[in-house]
């Protein structure tokens, strides 16, 4: 897989998504309905105001803050004190730890002065004491932690779920891991969800996984075991034959010794142990892909070549003709495969590219061809492949006897756009631009059609479609370099900040936002990849066009909404719907802001929502602005908002299957918001979560809250 150049700053990988962001557009000034394409890619969620050395790893509404540390080339921050700040800029957990990791599943890993790790909750309570040598973040309710030199799992209460006796683990999927025992290096497979072993660790010497089956070895003998731990292909059934590679697309290579010559014969076996293609080939591709594989019956070890044909999963000839004479044929991806031939003169393999008809797209004359990128799918443990943007293909040719290579680029048709005679390293950026590493500090962005290049310093990949770069550094009177960073789009154009005299000095990306440093202060920008779920997108975009989403709310759509953010949404809805400021609304209701109402917030939107009777505190002057709300709490606040707008409900009757789970104080409000309808699509302000359940105690996400505001807006 070709990656973005790691130059100077840490590479940050992103989710592959599209853009939804700022409503500040010319279309809005002209009273036109803005669309996603009209909007700016970055929006301030919190303008720079946090005076820390670093702010990064924004997750679950909290970011890791550091003071006094130093950023290493590895991306790690070393030294200083660590704590957590909210997206609103409040210091939630004091900076008193020597290290801290991003929040996951409601807990953050922190290290104390004794270099021991523990976990804090979102309020800063140390819920799991600092007694561990090392710790990973929580996943599926478990954290992998190290104690007395060995690793094990603990749950969110700190209970030791898996004893401390393991040397390492390897994630097979997001839920299943392979563990290795320190004492004898035996391996097992553990299911984190059921918290049981699929394969006991004292049974096998080695375990490999592929396509839903485990290949397990003990004393040199291998069996194949399914996800339930049952042996489906025992060693005895293979009868002196060997399975060469893990299963892929339901089949695996089967190898047996030939009685005719000293070549092995290769065929294929299915997951039930049945031979579906008898071993008769001297050479086959790595695995079946797109329903086919290349095979050769006359492959010769001396010439390192043979005549290949294409067969399907039944062993039938697909083309009725030869593909050609090659040393090897890789699996087909997107209808294409890399072919290699051994060059006896140079004693090297040369590569070309063919399609499924055997047509050469790129001649067999390059030392390497790279036309797809790979990604790991944690849901099933498989590797996924996809072509580079616009079908770009990277070609390599040997530059010298020291095995340095020049890299070039062709289009999808194999037409050379950049010859492999100049650049030592090229990597993908967009469908018509590639990066070329110049030094450890700078790279140039090259247009593959014109050859024009622009030099940038310390490029950092922020998200799909945007990079964080600087121009040539300026120097202070003391001779220290001053790097002025900004964001560029896929064409290399500066997009944020737009003014040439504005710049940033650092940035860290996470799915929930991009933390940036400007004029010595840290702020938070929206991440262009942070968009609503597919089911929510149409109504969220409509809410966007109605100006119902404040700028600082344009992120974290799938995360739980905080009490503070819900209050902001409600007050903003009232202002947009009535055309009046909250100050005017308070005056009309004969209400005043009480700045002393809460001890933990002075936010005017929260105080306005409180004075209007929409939200309440939690007692003892506490509002808990960063706390989550439940669906029944949201229903009460929405019903009160509807009342202020003069919207009346049609029913006071609840008819959900889980009525008994609803608190008595919420029943009337839930009846109201489930009967009030959006007049544009007849959807209730709030509805069922499935199977006629309201799920009153379930959490409420930001995108759900935005949609209910839009429906309430359209109910009058």
Automatic annotation (TrEMBL):
The signal peptide here is 1-27
Listed A to Z, the keywords are:
Signal
For this protein, the record's InterPro entries field holds:
SLH_dom, WG_beta_rep
Annotated SLH domain residues: 589-652, 653-716
Say yes or no: keyword Lipoprotein present.
no
Q: Which PANTHER family match?
A: DUF3298 DOMAIN-CONTAINING PROTEIN, GLR2918 PROTEIN
Its protein name is WG repeat-containing protein
Species in which this protein is naturally found: Paenibacillus chartarius
């Amino acid at each position: 897989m070709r990656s973005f150049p790691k130059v100077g700053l840490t590479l940050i990988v992103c989710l592959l998504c599209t853009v939804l962001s700022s409503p500040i557009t010319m279309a809005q000034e002209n009273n036109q309905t803005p669309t996603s394409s009209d909007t700016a890619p970055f929006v301030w969620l919190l303008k720079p105001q946090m005076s820390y050395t670093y702010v990064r790893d924004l997750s679950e509404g909290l970011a890791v803050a550091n003071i006094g540390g130093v950023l290493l080339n590895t991306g790690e921050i070393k030294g200083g004190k660590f704590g957590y700040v909210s997206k609103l800029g409040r210091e939630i957990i004091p900076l008193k730890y020597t290290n801290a990791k991003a929040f996951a599943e409601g807990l953050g890993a922190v290290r104390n002065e004794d270099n021991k790790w523990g976990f804090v909750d979102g309020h800063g309570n140390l819920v799991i004491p600092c007694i561990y040598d090392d710790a990973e973040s929580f996943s599926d309710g478990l954290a992998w932690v190290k104690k007395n030199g060995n690793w094990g799992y603990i749950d969110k209460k700190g209970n030791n779920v898996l004893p401390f006796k393991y040397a390492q683990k390897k994630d097979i999927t997001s839920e299943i891991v392979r563990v290795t025992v320190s004492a004898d290096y035996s391996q097992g497979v553990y299911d984190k969800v059921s918290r049981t072993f699929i394969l006991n660790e004292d049974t096998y010497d080695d375990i490999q996984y592929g396509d839903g089956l485990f290949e397990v070895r003990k004393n040199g003998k291998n069996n194949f075991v399914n996800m339930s731990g049952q042996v489906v292909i025992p060693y005895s059934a293979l009868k002196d034959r060997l399975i060469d590679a893990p299963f892929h697309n339901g089949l695996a290579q089967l190898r047996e010794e030939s009685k005719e010559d000293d070549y092995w014969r290769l065929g294929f076996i299915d997951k039930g142990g049945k031979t579906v293609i008898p071993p008769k080939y001297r050479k086959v591709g790595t695995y079946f892909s797109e329903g086919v594989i290349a095979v050769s019956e006359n492959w010769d070890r001396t010439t390192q070549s043979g005549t290949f044909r294409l067969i399907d999963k039944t062993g039938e000839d697909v083309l009725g003709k030869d593909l050609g004479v090659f040393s090897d044929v890789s699996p087909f991806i997107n209808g294409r495969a890399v072919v290699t031939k051994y060059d006896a003169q140079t004693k090297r393999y040369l590569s070309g590219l063919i399609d499924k008809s055997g047509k050469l797209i790129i001649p067999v004359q390059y030392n390497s061809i790279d036309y797809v990128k790979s990604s790991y799918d944690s849901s099933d443990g498989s590797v996924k492949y996809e072509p580079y943007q616009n079908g770009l293909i990277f070609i390599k040719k040997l530059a010298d006897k020291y095995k340095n290579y020049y890299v070039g680029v062709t289009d999808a048709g194999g037409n050379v756009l950049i010859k492999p005679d100049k650049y030592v390293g090229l990597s993908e950026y967009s469908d018509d631009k590639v990066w070329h590493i110049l030094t450890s500090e700078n790279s140039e962005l090259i247009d593959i059609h014109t050859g024009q290049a622009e030099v940038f310093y310390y490029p950092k990949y922020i998200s799909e479609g945007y990079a964080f770069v600087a121009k040539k550094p300026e120097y202070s009177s003391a001779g220290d370099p001053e790097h002025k960073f900004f964001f560029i789009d896929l064409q290399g154009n500066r997009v944020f900040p737009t003014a040439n005299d504005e710049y940033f000095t650092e940035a860290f990306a996470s799915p929930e936002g991009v933390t940036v440093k400007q004029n010595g202060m840290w702020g938070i920008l929206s991440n262009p990849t942070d968009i609503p779920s597919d089911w929510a997108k149409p109504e969220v975009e409509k809410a966007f066009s109605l100006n119902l989403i404040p700028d600082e709310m344009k992120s974290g759509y799938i995360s739980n909404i905080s009490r503070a953010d819900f209050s902001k949404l409600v007050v903003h809805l009232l202002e947009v719907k009535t055309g009046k400021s909250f100050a005017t609304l308070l005056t009309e209701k004969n209400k005043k802001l009480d700045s002393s109402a809460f001890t933990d917030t002075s936010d005017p939107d929260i105080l306005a929502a409180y004075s209007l009777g929409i939200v309440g505190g939690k007692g003892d002057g506490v509002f808990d602005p960063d706390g989550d709300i439940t669906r029944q709490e949201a229903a009460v606040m929405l019903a009160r908002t509807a009342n202020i707008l003069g919207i009346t409900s049609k029913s006071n009757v609840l008819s959900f299957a889980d009525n008994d789970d609803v608190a008595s104080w919420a029943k009337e409000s839930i009846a109201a918001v489930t009967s009030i309808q959006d007049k544009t699509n007849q959807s209730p302000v709030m509805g069922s979560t499935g199977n006629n359940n309201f799920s009153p105690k379930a959490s409420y996400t930001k995108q759900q809250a935005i949609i209910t505001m839009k429906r309430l807006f359209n109910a009058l």
